[in-house]
Amino acid sequence: MKRLLAYIAALGALIIVVSSCDVVNKTLKTNDPQYAYEQALILYEQGKWKQASDIFTACRHIYVGSPREDSLTFYNARCQFKDRNYGDAATMLDEFRRKFGRSPFIEDAEGMYALCHYYMSPEPERDQTVTTQAIIAITEFMSRYPESDKLPEFGEMLTTLSERLMEKSYLNAYTYYKIGRYKSAIVAFKNSMKQYPETPRKEEIMYYTTVSAYRLAANSVESKQMDRYLATLDYYYSFIGEYPESKHKRELDNIADNCRDYIDKNRKTEQ
Hints:
271 residues; single chain; mainly alpha; rod-shaped; 80% helix
């Protein structure tokens, strides 16, 4: 019974695909650009994005240079957007922005262009190039269209994207810490704090900076240990000043005691 149902479902899907192709083929075979354009709009209104886009794409060369070129390009890009093909949509919309800056569709096109990049922005563990592009696109839109009703939504998106970059910055630094590259970890954690002072990871960043400094000192050649233990104490005092009740306090207190013991012992030796 299950196999029969699966077969029926597959057959139904195949019929839909064939039927869709038939609609597109029959429309294009009329060799009537006006009719094809109107049919594509009907399919668009019906939510049949793939079929509509196929017709818009096939007709595009006919309308190059005509007053209808901008609307055809816009609706074709919108079909890709609605079908969640954000990469293709962004490419089309970028071309639209450059070519049809005075089109009545330009505001919607630029808003959609920004949304494409927002939806393509990956999780913090992955490369954040697209996230940066999304921030630029959204910021540009908000600057150009200060009266747009999209501004509240776009403002929330900017917050989400900024938090993603903050987290990526933290994860990059933490990776150095995990693999034992403590000097690089310290630099990366400090840069993360400098670039994103409002980060919600501030306590963890200050904690790992202190631990990294301590481990760097402990694994250094003798000639560098004194300065690095002193630097560790500086990080410790900064942390305790910010988070006196932190769950990390006991561990960092022990680290600070070890640093003081080393410093006191070696200063007495020098004397």
